[in-house]
């Protein structure tokens, strides 16, 4: 078993866990709370994107992802890289959707103007950077195919996406910490038992993990 198989196993395990949590959330919203908001639809799509991402990684592993590039045929390397691009497109989009879910949920419960502005700022920046990175991913070279068919298609590299990728990763982590801290700012001011406030705020902060 090579590194690609290990990657695929890890991705399917994470996907199963994610889909289980999405299913529990939707069950709670539909059967218990009996209210479904826009963020719940987004959570469902996030689960679907995660499933597609894992499937694309599996296809890429089939064509050689995880093995040494130089042991692959030109066709295998081209297909492996291409399906990694497809997978990353869904990963980037799914990550943005996950942030939007939390953002839209909090927009429904916060009251202060600065809190709403802060959330809208996070939403706009997250969507903008994610869409930009996906577009950049597929337009790194001229012609486009040269970026994944590197051994057979000559081309010119126009964009270096690594700085943008690292930047989006840092921004995503910052958003996770923000969403972990932000609920404490308004939940502690609610008129409810202290223990319930602590449990609610702690539950909403689990995303930082």
Automatic annotation (TrEMBL):
As given in the record, the signal peptide range reads: none
Q: Where is the Rhodopsin domain?
A: 24-208
Transmembrane parts of this sequence: 6-27, 48-70, 82-107, 119-138, 168-187
Q: Which UniProt keywords apply?
A: Membrane, Transmembrane, Transmembrane helix
Tree of life domain: Eukaryota
Q: Where in the cell is it found?
A: Membrane
Q: What is its main location?
A: membrane
Q: How does it sit in the membrane?
A: Multi-pass membrane protein
Listed InterPro entries:
Rhodopsin_dom_fungi (IPR049326), SAT4-like (IPR052337)
* One Pfam family from the record: Fung_rhodopsin
In which family does this protein belong, per the annotation?
A: Belongs to the SAT4 family.
Q: Which PANTHER family match?
A: INTEGRAL MEMBRANE PROTEIN (PTHR33048:SF93), PTH11-LIKE INTEGRAL MEMBRANE PROTEIN (AFU_ORTHOLOGUE AFUA_5G11245) (PTHR33048)
Report the protein name in the record: Rhodopsin domain-containing protein
